[in-house]
Amino acid sequence: MGSKISKLMLFATVCFGPVFNKRYSYQVNEVGKTDTVYVLTDRPDLFPNCITRDYTNFMGHSQFTYYSKLLFLFSLLEELKERVNYVDADFLKTIFNKRLVVGSTTLFTSIAVPYNKTLLSTLDDKRHKYREWYNFLEDNGLETKGDNVFTYITEAFWSFPYLDNINEIATRARELQAHIEKIFTTNPKHWAGTPLKRYAETGVGFGEGTAMSALVQEFNIPFQAVNHNKDLFNKEKFHIL
Fold it and tell me: What string of H, E and C letters represents the secondary structure of 105-173?
């Protein structure tokens, strides 16, 4: 029968702010023509082919937080009771590689990186300044030294399975929110001289991958990451990446 992909997918994404909405609403809507796409956005009117949730109504405020990705993902998992494929809006395209998702209990993700090779590890020389961040890692059993550093689950793609203990995992994710948003604030001056400054100019909670990494470790969730984020796309359908 060849290699044709016919299965439908249940996608979720967050698309917030004039820049992201202008750049990515069209491609997200294209996916919505063939697959089920839930979009958390401040412009529901731009996504006629998708199932939308108003950002302010869902979050209870209009300030952008990167942590909304986790909250939206786990809210849908609890509501729909099936695997949800969260994909960042800039990665959600009709050429998304559906073959990545197989099995029922594994978390499939974009690249997963040893802590010492992440942007966050560049903060190590300034531990005194970012002490609250390192306290969070220590409190959640995420090792940053030696041969057993934790694996950072990056944020572009999380295909999260519906597990028997999903309510417990979702509750824990919500518990971590306040701490992550307190550490990662909209304060470019505080993050000056680090690769994280550009995120601090946009919103709070930009340590969302850290929270996912903590959840994976705490609940012993098996995961499988792509070798390169180019693998998130179907190579038979694109030629520019």
Answer: CCEEECCEEEHHHCHHHHHHHHCCCCHHHHHHHHHCCCCCCCCCCCEEECCCEEEECCCCCHHHHHHHH
Q: Give the rounded distance of the alpha carbon of 109 from its chain centre.
A: 9
> Does residue 53 lie in a domain region?
yes
CA distance 85 to 38: 10
- For residue 237, pLDDT over 60 is answered with no
Q: Is residue 66 part of a domain?
A: yes
What CATH number does the domain containing 133 carry? Answer: 3.90.550
Write down the pTM of the prediction: 0.92
Q: Spell out the residues 6+ positions from residue 125 whose beta carbon is closer than 8 angstroms to its own.
A: none
Q: How many domains does the chain have?
A: 1
pLDDT at position 120: 86
The rounded distance, in Å, linking the Cα atoms of 15 and 39 is: 7
